[in-house]
Structures are given as structure tokens and as C-alpha cells.
Amino acid sequence: MADKPIRADKATAVAELTESFRNAGATVLTEYRGLTVSQLTQLRRSLGKETSYTVAKNTLAKRAASDAGISGLDELFSGPTALTFVSGDVVEAAKGLRDFAKANPKLVIKGGVFEGKAISAAEVTKLADLESREVLLAKMAGAMKGSLSKAAALFQAPLAQTARLAAALADKREKEGAEAA
Description:
This is Large ribosomal subunit protein uL10. Keywords: Ribonucleoprotein, Ribosomal protein, RNA-binding, rRNA-binding. Forms part of the ribosomal stalk, playing a central role in the interaction of the ribosome with GTP-bound translation factors. It comes from Micromonospora costi. It is a single chain. The protein has a 5-stranded antiparallel beta sheet, sandwiched between helices. Strand 4 and strand 5 form a beta hairpin. The chain is an alpha+beta fold. The chain is rod-shaped. The protein starts with 7 loop residues before the first helix and ends with a helix. It has 2 domains: about 120 residues, Alpha-Beta Plaits (2-Layer Sandwich); about 50 residues. About 60% of the residues lie in helices and about 15% in strands.
């Protein structure tokens, strides 16, 4: 892309978008053609506070993505494009977009960026199908607790066996002492 000078207001918009691209854990591009303002407001609310939904001009968004070091999105910048910058839980944001798109078919998920790499719309859907971070952490904690309990029982087993052996030896000595007397 030839870098031609841009006006100050556009340069500011590009700088803000570039910063959003850099700070977001993920970015999802959507086409919103045919959605009403109230539907877009509803979408923004459903995505939560850690996710922003921004309508941007394709040329400015393309330049901002390039400035942020992101490649592979150029073909997605066609038609009316909105950018979903996710700072929080990427899975929850992807679920929110997927669910809203099911209820409002005019919202089309084009693709996006996750961990610095371009992803397709199908990959965004796969992200939405994952369990949330909290659920995965809870499952991991449960598995770790089970493993720790098994380890504790394993470490306690030799001590318990030693105690039983000592008690058996003491009983045997008592019997032998009683028989000798």
C-alpha cells in the first residue's frame, strides 16, 4: 500500500484504531449492512464493557491494521465494516457475536485477528464454541485437586503401613512375652 499523506483528522482516527488493534487480545471484523441503530446498540451492550464495537472506514482500518503489524485482513475490508476489539474474554465476545448473528442474520462475521494472526469466520465460530475461561479454569482446578488428593494418599500410605507394622510387632512381642512368662 502506498503511504500517501492523510489529513490530520484521519491520521488521528488511524492512530486510535492502530492503538486498539495493538491493545486488543482479538479483533473480529463484521459486516453490519441492514442493522438498525438500536440493533447495533443492543449488540454493543451484549458484548460487555471490555469489548468495543467500532464502525470504521475500510481504508483507515486497513492502514491501522498495517501500522499495528497485522496482515492477512485486506480482503475482509470490503463493504460496511465494523471492528470488534476484545480486551477481555475472547471466547465470551465470540459467543456474543455468534449469538447476535443467529438472532440477526444481517450481521455477518467476516473473520478477524487472534493472538496476532488472521483467522477466518469459521475459526471465530470455533472460538465461540469453546467453554469460557472460568469453566476451563474450574475444570483444571478440579483435575489438579484430584491429582493432589491422590498424591497425598500415596505419600500417607507408607506411613500408615509403617504404623500398622509397628503395632503388629508390638502385639507379637506382647504375645511372645506372655508365652515366655
